[in-house]
TrEMBL record:
Pfam families: LRR_6. This is 17674_t:CDS:1. Gene3D superfamilies: Ribonuclease Inhibitor (3.80.10.10). Signal peptide: none annotated. It comes from the Eukaryota. SUPFAM superfamilies: RNI-like (SSF52047). PANTHER family: F-BOX DOMAIN-CONTAINING PROTEIN-RELATED (PTHR24114:SF2), LEUCINE RICH REPEAT FAMILY PROTEIN (PTHR24114).
Amino acid sequence: MFKKVSSPLGLPRSLSLETFSSKSKKLKRSSTKPFSFTTLPTLHLDRFFTNEGHQLVTSYLKLSQIQNHIQKGTLHKITEKDVDELLKSYGGLSTPVYETISYQELNLSYNECKLLAKLLKANHVTKIRKLKLSKNHLSGSSVKIIFDALQKNSTVKVLDLSFNNLSDNEAKWLGNLLKKNDTIQEIYLSNNRIKSDGAKYLSKALMMNDSVERLNLESNLLNAEGGIHISKMLELNDTIKHIHLGSNNLNFEGIEAISKSIESNRSLVSLSLDINNITEEGAKSLATSLEINQTLTHLYVPRNNIGDRGLSYICKSLLKNSVLTYLDIEYNNIGKDDNVEGMKSLGELLEKNKVPRAINLTYNPIGDEGCEQLFKGFHKNTTLESLLLSNCNIGLNGIIAISDSLKLNIGLQNLALNKNSNMGADGHLVLADALEKNTSLKSVQLDYNFAEWESIGNSIQQSLTRNHFLQNEKYKTAANILKAARILLNPTLQQQLPTCMSCSTSPFISPMISPMISPMISPIISPISTPRRLSIQTPEKKSFSKLPFELQEHILAYLDTTHVLTKPQILEIISFALKKSTLNFTMEEFLSKTLYAYYPLTPDVRLWPTEATDAEFLSFERF
């Protein structure tokens, strides 16, 4: 029925479909297993590919396989010749598939590192941005060949060599690289074997380097001498914004040197010094520097045994500091032996000052008396957004002190009280009652480890949900008043507003204006309903702008139909609208300025950047 013909690929087609079908049926009968094409023998097609088209197909399949091996990190399955052929096939055009090279826990050999170096040198094609090589037991020549390649690379911005076997020699090679490379912005070297000499090599290089912004040296062997080398670098470097020196046994001498360096440093934003045996003397040295430094926003000093006296030093210095945002003092024996000195100092700071915006006190035995001191004047604070009090030995009396303060506080967004078993069901009930009156808290961490947890938990959740929507309403109302004030009060600014803003004004103003004032301002608002840009010569606008300011304020206040804003807040919004310099502000900047703080409408309580920007570096996160 069918003749033998050649297939389009040059393969002999000797069986008709009918014949193949009949054979497959016989195969089914003779086997207990259902027929599957996988049971047929594998055909090796290379010997049938004879013409140019078939060779192209073969080449494409081979190059795709090489590319897949590179992406997966199975470099042991390819050769240098394979990589050369692949790079040549791109024809000089860049490819996005290599933007992130993540070879973690692969135990890369020297030959594999050699292939990787070839990719790094071809940066005009590969365009590698992130190079992640953690947990590969790298050291010696394997590392050197990568550093040599990076000297000729101009695309890699993130270099992660954490959890390897880097020592002072590798740190020296890296230092030589950093003297020449001006592209790398983030370096992660945690959990290696770098000592004080390695810190010296890196520090000398970073005195000359102006590209590195993040440096992580956590869990190395720097000791006090290494800390002194780092401090000399910080005195001169004006590029590094985040540095992590945790778990390096810096002791007092190293901490003292670093403290003095941040007095003159003007770029550092985040400083991590956890597990370095700082003690209260080191905390005192840090506190002295914080009175002078006005750029550091994140300070992490957990597990350093600073005690109550050390916290008192820091709190007193922050009375003169206006920028520190986040303070992590977890596990520092604060409140030990019923000492309340630290909590008293922190309470006074929060009552009088606008910083910090987040505090982590987890695993400090502050107890009930410590809570009473901390929250004594907390109702006056409007800027603290997050407070972590997990596992702080808080009982019923402490929860009562917290709850009484929450009834009046209007700033706190997140509160952690889990792992405080002594608060019991009564403590949860007291907190639930307080949250019925609180209008700001959006997130609470609790254990609910008692029989009546469900009803109390539902009550707390309802209060938090209500606060979330209330906050959203505040932001929408503030934005509406801003738009109306800019159009009605400042014709000069109106000329600079985008046409779309003029067009979109009437839909939100008209429905929201109370009938009581509509007759008064209808001649003024009528021009807004037209899609054209308002003219500075409009007489109606002039008449509105000449009204007494009290009346203007009264009219604009009617846009707050649900009465979610206070009079000072409305005045602040109007004042903001009248300033030409505020036209380019973002919504976040506007809300922070007029409502004194901006709280993201999201369940995520990480309000600021931590040590790492990449979500994969979870071990570096502090909050």
